[in-house]
Amino acid sequence: MRLKINSFTLPEVIVVLIIIGAGIALFYGLLFLNWLSYEIELTRIELHQQSEEIFRQLSRDLLPSSSFSLGTGLTQSGNLTIFYPAFLGRSQVIYQINNNQLVRTEGGVNYILSENLDSANSFFQIDSGSLFFQLALFQDVIGGRRVIFSNTQQLLMRN
Length: 159
Description:
Blueprint (H helix, E strand, L loop, with lengths): L9 H53 L4 E3 L6 E2 L1 E5 L8 E7 L2 E6 L2 E6 L8 E5 L2 E11 L5 E10 L4
Antiparallel strand pairs: 1-3, 2-7, 3-4, 4-5, 5-6, 7-8, 8-9
């Protein structure tokens, strides 16, 4: 008498493995896409906060100033010089855009305001006596993707 062993056939095992594999691939694919979306959104928020801080600092420097210049005869530049009246005790503040950095120089001391600056798309512009600042920030996230945040604001002196 021969005992019959109850077991799964090869096609049944293959079908079950295919179903489990598809389920795992779908689960991890959706998990990765959600994680990537979350990372991109957090990065966009961080870049927005960084741009707002840069605009606040620039506004603080520009409000008490007597004048500003982009250079002789220039209406658009990567350099901005802000001049102050003598009674304030400071002479000038210089903002420079170079090598993907926004650098603020006051009294010979350099402060790096951002290291994520897109130098090709960021500039200061004078239009009808008003100063406009086009700021473009970037940051690389997982998967080799780059998040870019752009903001343009008009900045005014107090007087």
